[in-house]
Batch of 2 targets.
Target 1
Amino acid sequence: MHIAIIGGSDAGISAALRARELDPNVDVTVVVADRYPNFSICGIPYYFSGDVKPWQSLAHRTSADLEATGMSLRLDTLATRIDVAGRNLEVRDTVGTTSLIGYDELIVGTGAVPSSAGIVGLDELGPEDGVHVLHSMGDTFALDRHLDERTPRTAIIIGAGYVGLEMAEALSVRGIHVTQLQRGPEVLSTLDPELGALIHTELTRHGVEVVTDSKVASVTRGPDGLTVAGTHLGQPFERTADLVLAVVGVVPNTSLLVDAGARLGAGNAVMVDETMRTGLPNVWAAGDGVITHHRLLGLTYLPLGTTSHKQGRIAGENALGGSARFAGSLGTQAVKVFDLVAARTGLREHEAVAAGFDPISATAAADDHKAYFPGSHPITIRITGNQSDHSLLGAQMVGTYGTEVSKRIDTYATAIHHGMTVEAISELDLSYTPPLGSPWDAVQIATQAWTRSTTQRVVSAAV
Amino acid sequence: MHIAIIGGSDAGISAALRARELDPNVDVTVVVADRYPNFSICGIPYYFSGDVKPWQSLAHRTSADLEATGMSLRLDTLATRIDVAGRNLEVRDTVGTTSLIGYDELIVGTGAVPSSAGIVGLDELGPEDGVHVLHSMGDTFALDRHLDERTPRTAIIIGAGYVGLEMAEALSVRGIHVTQLQRGPEVLSTLDPELGALIHTELTRHGVEVVTDSKVASVTRGPDGLTVAGTHLGQPFERTADLVLAVVGVVPNTSLLVDAGARLGAGNAVMVDETMRTGLPNVWAAGDGVITHHRLLGLTYLPLGTTSHKQGRIAGENALGGSARFAGSLGTQAVKVFDLVAARTGLREHEAVAAGFDPISATAAADDHKAYFPGSHPITIRITGNQSDHSLLGAQMVGTYGTEVSKRIDTYATAIHHGMTVEAISELDLSYTPPLGSPWDAVQIATQAWTRSTTQRVVSAAV
């Protein structure tokens, strides 16, 4: 039995590890486009901030660790064609030599590639011009070289999502003046604007110049540096800096599977079922290149490292003949921005409306632990519940680093996983000790506040 | 409608707040034995450590806050008799005057009292002798006076449970040499000894002298101070110190309800059903004086502040005519001891065996966040699962303060609440960002390790 796997990031490596864990006799070959399998792409901003060094420590596991599990790595090898009928994978090495890898089962984890969001110039300008994206170790080395050799003093970051915010912090920490451009009305658009505003304030407090409602049309290179042009609140807007980092999302990297006959679904990602089958015989796929089964939304596209790990693990198990099923994402995410942490799980109100729910939301502030014990901070918590049956649909939190926001969101994620009502959250037996909580934990104080503020008559806590 | 409530601690005040929240027209009278309603008894050790000052800040709410909600407080008033048939509560004030309070519904939250665990001398010696317990603000003031006026240099703490450990830290921080005596083989006997040993090492590292396997028989007062005598590993043992603090558990305070005809159950606590009915007409009870409905154990006695809050809230709602039901405890607890935090939820192996399960346990270490980001620490996690159906029965954790142990235990608590299998924990969409987690969170790494180490053949992750 030979499983070939394309992709050395979360999905591919998870699949390979799972297959080898379950069956020490299976042959597993992982085809990796670069020399950097199993690197923590999520950790790259912390390399630039100086928190992580050297860059090698960003590897979840070294190549030697991976090969010690019994998998074979084919590094610097690009998968170029899948011969579904013949069960052959065509690959090309760095000198251009093409060869075939025969397989019994194939798992595709080709991930996603940075989007250029229609911005003119992004496809033409590159690292040599001072225009960067950040999605691979190659991108990392290019930016690192730029920072070392050209010591830019100013940077424009296009985008204020997770990576954009983390990079705003990292570049600011290095003494670079950062202008952060965000298309929408508030940064971190995965949260409601009232919570995003807390992150906005934190950025400003640390010297980042934030320009929301700015639509970037083009990036051009001129004698004074790189010029980003577009509109801000409908008016012409232009800003020049030494360096431009475009982090405006990703698009699924699907060409290999599409050429082989796979179907596309939500977000133009490859359709898979919950077992990670593509529909092509003996071909599985997982990770940022495939659609996401969401427990509340059904089929969507929501690329996240955690999901890639789960999907990859399932593909690895099922390629061996298993029957694992992906239980579905809730879009749980967390990000640290300077001294704050933001987290979310489930749906926000507009997402819930689009999915056919009848949501209502309420925001509360609750101390992370008893205020009498030093170091207590309020956490801002926004709860979205369904008006008809009071099911908990989503939660968003912003709190000071150290207030256990990211693990508190996990309680909500586990609750939504099980379809709990907002009121039933108060039935959970959560831990309490004064330095770390309250008799009603902050997550329960927020759900009780939702009930008080959204219903005329408080309903039973034991609904 | 008039609801009388006996007890100004967690259960009584929670009941009063809930009744007033649900019905602003109901009259609520809370009879409080001392002058300190709604004080955080769990916070007392932090007053002694100096973290909390002044003592008034230990109040969850002031008397004025409470009365602002519309409840009436009868402070310094002891409930002496319940006339069930006549719906009258007899009370006595501090000068000995007896009076009757008529009620429509009565809620009893008389709590528990410190146990003397059969130790000779504990019932006779008191604060004036240098022998203390710690269960009320009165006890707090007595110990405070002792520390201020007599500046003891040495202390013996009998017991190494939550309060005992917190007080070992508090007195050590004040420069007092602490000897901590523990009956069993390891401190913090609510955890398995291999995890308790981590706490033991932490105590020793901070100068606390820990003597396990020590059975205290007597406390006597002599010219050189207080002598605690008994056996250590079967040999005679004696130790003398300036101060003795006995924190060896509590017994439910039930005389009022027993005299009124209530039945006792587990742990000699008052029997109540999930609605907090005592079985006596119009009499409800909640808190440390009543039995605990446990989701895995059925009826038991497990006094915890979090449970008292929940039970009190339910009693307050149902006394008004509601139909709330206590969903059951899982015994979730957390404690900070110097730089470590320990937490647990659900059952340990011997508890699970006693309850008819077929448990097996495994211990793993998992980093609280990606090791490449500064400040990462391994968390020791012990998972207990049922061999027959792989249901998660319990989890115990010990980690450095700051590793979000107490909120990670909540994920397990929520999972056990819903009867999840050990393997299904890997299906949960938990948050990840490198400074605060891993793509598989520590709670998932531990459950995956349980499966690997306890089953011959790894079963599907999607059981």
Target 2
Amino acid sequence: MSKVKSKEQPVILVTNDDGVTAPGIKALVEAVKHLGKVVVVAPDKPQSGMGHAITIGHPLRMHAVHYFEGIEAYQCSGTPVDCVKLAVDKVLHRKPDICLSGINHGANHSINVIYSGTMSAALEASIESIPSIGFSLLDYSIEADFTGARKYAGILVEHLLKRKYDKHLCLNVNIPAVDASLLKGLKVCHQAYAKYEEKFDERIDPHGKKYYWLTGDFVNFDKGKDTDVWALKNNYVSVVPVQFDLTHYKLKAKLEQTLTKLN
Amino acid sequence: MSKVKSKEQPVILVTNDDGVTAPGIKALVEAVKHLGKVVVVAPDKPQSGMGHAITIGHPLRMHAVHYFEGIEAYQCSGTPVDCVKLAVDKVLHRKPDICLSGINHGANHSINVIYSGTMSAALEASIESIPSIGFSLLDYSIEADFTGARKYAGILVEHLLKRKYDKHLCLNVNIPAVDASLLKGLKVCHQAYAKYEEKFDERIDPHGKKYYWLTGDFVNFDKGKDTDVWALKNNYVSVVPVQFDLTHYKLKAKLEQTLTKLN
């Protein structure tokens, strides 16, 4: 029995939001493939900013792809969240031991966790009782250097596969875009209240009609040292544990006192 | 001065995810139009399940529409979250006093808050320091009876315009699909751990290729009486205050003790 057991590798589901051909997902697969049986199910096109969107109104397609040497992989026509759901039901036919999302080309710290397809895939796994990590490198370039990100992905995944925390564990990990030698290590943080102040760029099309591009400036309203934004500015790898219970418990107590009077 | 002040009506931004022509948004406008200056900016097509998606890769369109008698209204080609952002920057040119989303045709209790375009629009407003409420009726029908929902929308919006709670206040309000006379009143709750257990319906298209429809059964894992699912089953209008700080603070403390040892 022990022999059989020692052969059972953990199953590692890998997805992302930049699409299955993005260099970041290849870097993530490379970082963890020695730690278990890796299976990739990722979007067939970029899905940045898709948040926790799911596909309801039309069906999904999924095809095997051969982008990763020796790794079972599929591209899916849906969102990152769709990929996780479809992987569990139709590819793995079981829950994986861990779900990894990324490595995203670009930051997902602070409020961006809510808009991010990368983090929504990880959160979806967590809802499904699958521990998960989303990884994001603070470099949007297609030619980004994933050396430091790969190193910390390997360290964290190895640790989480050995030590069970919580079946709903979900980590939002961001890595500064600096040379790996300059990284100061992991720092557990909370999500900063920092966000984009949106401005739409209004333009006129060749037919004389208006259209709008979403743009904005990033503003940090949170001056604490315990935030992901501070950690990243100071060359730490930020680790924010994330949850899907959005209840605002402090306000709940207050509202209980007042709203019930309206009945 | 006091005369001028008394003329200043609160500005009420209304959006939804079922699209600008859905009966639910008309019911919401009717419920609150006596309470301030209502402006509608809503999607030009159904956007259910879009979660917190935003439109990055292509521009947005927005056009004035005349669906609501005497009310300034626009349809937008983007997601519910896009609608809120665009309304603030390009329609109102200021923050509204409150943002309302819905009334959704269908439930958004428990984990559905995360997938819901209705609630993501409300949460977006909350991120932007605009108090907000998302309303959902537990009836998917286009011919749903919004009488009870309208009543409680009126009560809650009037209350929140008078009494300031928090600039980030965001309420997830669900209304049971029963005759208004049977509703027992408002109940402040927390989000139940109840979710769909997904099963994909695998089919073969006329060209012999597989495709998948997302389906599932709703399962309540949370047996407490303090949840939105319990309240709704017992004919209460459930009110869950929602927040956008996803940090899991309990796990954060635990992880601080262990992860830093990996450095």
